[in-house]
Structure formats: C-alpha cells, structure tokens
Task: structure prediction
Amino acid sequence: MILHNKKVAVIGAGPVGLTIARLLQQQNVNVSVYERDKDQYARIFGGTLDLHKGTGQEAMKKAGLLDTYYKMAIPMGVTITDHQLNTLFTKKNHS
Ligand SMILES: Cc1cc2nc3c(=O)[nH]c(=O)nc-3n(C[C@H](O)[C@H](O)[C@H](O)COP(=O)(O)OP(=O)(O)OC[C@H]3O[C@@H](n4cnc5c(N)ncnc54)[C@H](O)[C@@H]3O)c2cc1C
Result:
C-alpha cells in the first residue's frame, strides 16, 4: 500500500476528517487528526447531521460504525409549513 510506513495527517476533525481517519486506521495506517477548534464551544454548531442511506450511512458502514450510528442517532421528521405555520407536509422518522 502506498501509505505503508508513512504518517498521515488529517487536518480537521469534522465528519469527513474523522471518517477518513477511521477508514485509514482500519488499514493500519498511522494517522493523526489535527483540529483547530479548542472544544465544541469554539463556534456555533449546527443541529442535526443528515446521514442518508447510500451516502453518509454507507461511509459509516464501511467505517464499521453503522450499528453505533443507529444506536445513537435520533431519527427526525420533516414538517413543512406555510407562513402561518399551517402544516403542508409531514414525514416522520426521515432517514
Ligand atoms: C450553519 C450550518 C448549518 C448546517 N446544518 C446542517 C444540518 O442541519 N444537517 C446537515 O447534515 N448538515 C448541516 N450543515 C453542513 C455540515 O456542517 C457539513 O456538511 C459538514 O460539517 C461537513 O463536514 P466536513 O468534515 O467536510 O467539514 P467541517 O464539519 O467543516 O469540519 C472541518 C473541520 O476542520 C477544522 N479545520 C479547518 N481548518 C483547519 C486547520 N487549518 N487546522 C486544523 N483544523 C482545521 C475546522 O475547525 C472543522 O472542525 C450545516 C453547515 C452550516 C455551516
């Protein structure tokens, strides 16, 4: 493998950086992740992370984390309203 006997630096501990680090670790690559944010309070973070079947969930599966993901994830629905908050569309447990 091209990364054999090499050290790999992943810059950024976002979802992509952590996923690629995990995938590299599974191939016994020596990988370190560097993150500039001091902690989770360094900046405003988003609410939910959409991980869809076939893309984000597929990456979790390859990383061996899909079961953990299903245990920890909170399936959320989608509600679309008009400007007076009348519900136009609802879908529960969107995935
Ligand atoms: C306001 C907002 C709301 C969002 N809401 C949603 C949502 O509801 N659902 C959803 O699925 N997605 C949402 N997203 C998108 C989601 O955040 C991104 O798709 C996802 O975070 C991308 O992951 P990433 O690992 O590529 O990058 P990031 O999550 O941006 O991670 C990159 C990391 O690299 C670090 N970094 C950058 N430069 C350096 C450096 N030089 N040295 C060290 N570390 C560095 C950063 O601090 C950061 O932690 C939202 C995005 C924004 C901005």
Observations:
- The chain has one domain: 7-91.
- The mean pLDDT is 89.
- Strands lie at 7-11, 30-34, 76-81, 87-94.
- DSSP finds three helices and four strands in the chain.
